[in-house]
Amino acid sequence: MRKYRASQLNRLLACPPSHREGELEIREDTEIARTGSALHHAMEIWVSEGKALDAVDLAKEFNVSDADEIAMLFKFGLQLWDELKDYFPEPKTEVGFEAQLADDVILTGHMDLVSVSGKSEPRVLDYKSGWVKQWPVEQLKGYALGAAAAFSATKATVVVANLRDGSYDARTFETDELKAFGRKVIAAARAVDQDKYEVGDHCTFCPLSHSCPARGALVRSSVNALSDMTTDTIAGIADDGKLAEMRMVISSVEKAVKIVKEGIRDLTIARGVVDLGNGKELFMQDYELKGILPLKAWPILKEHLSREQLAGAIIIKVTAVQDAVAANTSGGKGAACAAILDVLDKVEAIKRTKHKRIQTRKRVENAEEK
User: Fold this and answer.
1) What are the respective helix, strand and coil percentages of the chain, to the nearest 5?
2) Burial of 293 (0-12, 13-18, 19+ CB in 10 A)
3) Of 113, 163, 164, 171, the residue nearest 140 (C-alpha)
C-alpha cells in the first residue's frame, strides 16, 4: 500500500519514478515556505478561534526575518476571509484526509479549510502567499478528490485565495472529472517502479534530483554539449526543437552548479577550512552590509543634502508603494494601487526603463495552421 500527498501530484503524474520509496530525499527550507507556514497557522487560528496572532511572535516561531511581511499578508488574508466567509458555513480548518483510490493506492492531504453546504458539496479553501499567482490544478484536483471522498460527495469546489493581491479563483470539479483524475493518479502510482523518467519543470523542486539517474545523465551530456558552443554556433541553429533542448540543458547545468556550490559552502562551514591543494584554502569570511533607516536618518540627511541629492540617494520600489497602498485600503486594493500609480504617472514621477527577457508562453497557431 502506497500513500501519495495531494501536494505532490504534479510530480507524481509527470515523473512516477521520482516517488520511489527508500530513496534519500533532500528538501529545501526557504524563507518563502516558512512565511507561508506562518500565514497558514495565523489564518487557522483566526477562523477557528477568532484570535489574531502577533506578527513578531509568528516570525520568531517560524524563523521568518520579516515580521512586517507577515503582518501585511495576514491583513490581506483577513480581508479575503471577510469576503469569502459566507461561502464557507461552519468551516473546519486544517482537515486531513485519506482517500483510498485503489487497493494499493491512497491519496492523502491537508486542506487549509473545508466546509460542507446543504447539498453535501464540500468546499475547500487553499491559501497561497507566494509572489506568483498559482492555480496548481493537479494539487487542487487532489484536494477535491479527497474532500469528495471524506464527505461521501460526488463533486467538490476548490477556492484558491491569493493573499498578495487579494484575489481568489474558484472551480467546481464534477463527478466524471474526479473519477477520470483518480484513474490517472492510480496509473501513475503503479508506474513508480518503472525506469521511465521524465525531465521538465517538475524537476526544479524534486527532493530526489540529487540522485536521479536521468538528471545525472542529462547534466553530463549537457556539459559536453555546452563545452563546444559559441555565439556563432548558436546563431546557426535553425531547428527550434534544438533551441528548446538547449534551454533544458542550461537549466539542468545551472541547477547542478547550484547544488555543488551549496554543498561546498556547507562543507566549508562544517570544517572551518578546506585545503584546495594548490597553496590556497577556502574559509568563511564574515562581512557586514550597511543600510540606512529612512525614518531615523531623514531629519539628519535633510540638513546636509539638497532635495536633488536626497532624491538621488533614495530608491522607491513600485511594489513597496503598491503594498503600502493596499495595506491602507479596506476594499478594492487593485483599483487603489492603479489610481496612485496613475497620479504619479501624470506628474511624470514614474521612471521607465525598457529591457528584454526570454519568456515562455503557449504557442499561438495562425489561421493557416488551423
Assistant:
1) 50, 15, 35
2) exposed
3) 171
Tens of pLDDT, residue by residue over 39-69, are 999 999 999 999 999 999 999 999 998 888 8
Q: What is the DSSP letter of 200?
A: S
Cell numbers 534544438 correspond to: 242
Residues near 68 by beta carbon (within 8 Å), at least 6 away in sequence: 55
**For residue range 220-235, what is the model confidence (pLDDT) as tens digits?**
776 777 777 778 877 7
CA distance 277 to 279: 6
Residue 367 has pLDDT above 50, yes or no: no
> Contact at 8 Å (CB) between 3 and 37?
no
Tell me the domain boundaries of the chain: 2-189, 212-283, 294-346
Does the structural domain 2-189 have CATH classification 3.90.320.10? yes
Report in angstroms the alpha-carbon separations of 40 from 22, 98, 163.
30, 21, 11
The 8-class DSSP code of residue 272 comes to: S
